[in-house]
Amino acid sequence: MLAEPRRPVDLAAVFDLATLSDPRWSPDGRQVACVVSRPDLGANRERSAIWLVHAEGASPPRQLTGGQQTDRMPRWSPDGRLLAFVSNRGGTDQVWLIPPDGGEAHLLTGEDAGVGPVATDDFFAALEWSPDGSQVAFVAQEPAPPTKDDPEATDGRVVGRDDGEGYGEIRRLHVYAIPAAGGSARLLTPGDYHSGDFRWSPDGRQIAFVSNRTGDEEAVRGSIDKNYDLWLLDLATGEARRLTTNPGPDLGPRWSPDGRFVAYTSVPRCGSHRDVFQLTVISADGGAARSLTAPDGPHVDRLADACWSPDGETIYLTAARRAANVVLAVSAHALGPARTVVGGDCVCEGAALSPDGRRVALVLQAPDWPPELCVAPAGGGEPRRLTAFNASLRERALAPTRVRRWRSPDGLEVEGLVTPPPDHQPGQRHPLLVVPHGGPHSRSALGFSVEWQFWAAQGYVVFAPNFRGTMGYGQGFVDADRGDFGGGDFADVMSGVDDLIEAGLADPKRLAIMGSSYGGYMTAWAIGHTDRFKAAVAIEAVVNLQSMYGQTDIKSWVEWEFGYPWEVRERLAARSPITYAASVRTPTLVVHGDEDRRVPPPQSQELYTALRKLGVETQLVRYPREGHGIKEPRHRRDLLRRVGAWLEAHVSGASKAGTD
Fold this sequence. Notes:
Elements lengths: L10 H4 L4 E7 L5 E10 L4 E10 L7 E2 L7 E6 L6 E5 L6 E5 L7 E2 L19 E3 L5 E7 L31 E7 L6 E2 L7 E6 L5 E6 L17 E6 L5 E3 L7 E6 L5 E6 L11 E6 L6 E2 L7 E2 L13 E8 L2 E8 L7 E4 L4 E7 L5 E8 L2 E9 L6 E2 L5 H4 L7 E6 L5 E7 L10 E5 L15 H8 L3 E6 L8 H5 L8 H15 L3 E11 L1 H12 L5 E5 L5 H7 L3 H7 L7 H6 L13 E6 L8 H12 L4 E6 L9 H18 L10
Helix pairs in contact: 7-8
C-alpha cells in the first residue's frame, strides 16, 4: 500500500507548536524539570506548565502543574523534596511550592509576605533556594503603597528616566528572601535602583547580583547598553560591594563550585544594544577580570545556573555561531579554543550541566525538527531526545531549510536561510517571500520556524537574509551596519534576492517582502528604493528616525547608531524610509500593536498616511493590547490570514492562507 501523503503545515499546525525552556536537573540527576508552553486559541493566551522528564527515558514525561494559569521558572530544593516555581494562578506572578511526586501547590509569597509581583522576564528575574534549603530568594517589585481616599489625588504622573517596555511602569525591582516554611519576605537590595539576576554563593553567606547604579537608566528589559555591574551582598552585614568596574554591561553571575570565582557575560564597551557578549571570570575578592572568549568568536548566551563543572575546570554554555546555536565547553582559566559539545545545523538553548558533570540537558531544535528536550554527553556525542511534545508537527510535510552564501556588491560574504516549498522540484521557480530580521543586530537562526514552514506550504520560497549587522558572525560584522541603515545591509538583501533568481529558485516577477521592527524598516526602505516587490508587509516598522527618537523607550538606539537628532538631522532624514515615500509603488500592508513602546504606533501611522495620500494601495491594521510583537494567538491567526490574502491578491495567487 502507498503511504498517505503528509499534510502541509496549515494554520492549525501553527498553533499546535509547543515551546520548551528552562531545563533544570534534580539534585540526584534522575529527572529534568522544564517548562512547556502552547498557544491557546480558545483562551487567547499562551499557557505554560511544568513537566518532569526522566533523564534516562525510563518513564514517560509527567506533567506536574496544569490548569488555566502560566507556570514557569521551576527550581529544585537542595534535597529534591520540593519545587519552587512562579505562577499567576493567584492573579499576579508569585512564588509557589509543590512536591515533585505530586500534590497541591501552596503559595509562598504575595501581599501577606510584603512583596509585589515577582519578576519573570529574561533580564532581571531570578529564583533560587539557599544552599541549606531554608530560604527561597527571588526578584520582585516593591509592594504598592497603601491607597488613600484623597479628593485632591490625580492619576497624572512624572515620567521616569527608564519609562519604557515593562520596567518603566513598575515599582523598583529588588532581591528578596523568604523562609521556605513561609512568613515575611526580607528585602536584600534596598535603594532607588533596580537589582536582580542574583545567585547565592555556595556557602550561603553572599549573594551576587546585577544592578545599574550610575543614574543612566533606560528600558532595561530590551536594552543592555547601560553600565550594569556585578555586586556582592554580605548577608550578615547587609553591605553591598561593587565587584566589576567594566564600562559595559556585566550580567548573569555564576559562582564557581568552591566560591572563589564568579563567571558572567560581559561587553567591554557601553552604548551598543547587541555587542558580542564574552564569557568572563573574576575573583570573588575583586581584581582584574579575565575574558575566556574573544570578540571575534561565538556570541555567548545567558549562562545556565548549572554551567561550572564540579571540579571548577570547565564552563559549559550555549553560543551563537553564525546561524546556529551550539553548546561549548570553555576552560575556566584562560582564553583558548572552545570544545564543541553539541554542534551542527541546529539551535541549542538552556544547556545545563548535570550534578555529576557528565551530561548536559538542553532544548534542541532544527529547521525540520521542532523543539524537544534532549540530553547529551558532556564530553561530546549525539544528543538523545527525551520528549515528543511536537510529534504531530514532525508528521507534517516539512520543507528543508538550508544556509546559502553569496557576495554582496562590495565583496562581503553574506549568508541567509532559504526554505523552499516542501514539494519543490529541481528547475522549478516559485514566488519569493523575503523576511528580514529585526534589530538590526538580531539574527535568523537554524531553529524550527513554524511560520516559515507555513509560508513554504503556501508555495513560497522563504528567504531570511543575515545581512551585515547580524549577531553571530563576530563583532566586526555587527559593527558593519552602524550608521549605514539602508546602505550595505539593503545591498546584502537585494544581492541575495538576485542570487536566488540566478539559481533558478525565485520567480523575478513574483517577489514580496515582509518584516517586523528593523525588518519593518528594511521593508519600508526597500519599497522606497525599488519597485521589484509586488507586495510588502511592514510590521512595527521604523520609518522616521527623527521622530522615533522622541517616541521610543530606547532613545540610546538612535544615539548609538547615528548620534543626537539635533546634531545629525540631515543624516537621519537621509536614512529614514519616510523620506522616500513618493517613490513607493508597491501595495503595502501596514501593521502595528497599540501598546508598542519600542517602535510606537505613530511610526506606522506616518507610513500609512503618506502612502494613502500618494495613492499607493495600502491598509493599516492595529491590534489592541499588543506591545512590541503580536503575541495574542487570535491576533497572530488574524495577521497570518490578512498577510495571506494580501500576498494572494498581489503576488499572482500563490498563497492559500486562511485554510485550516
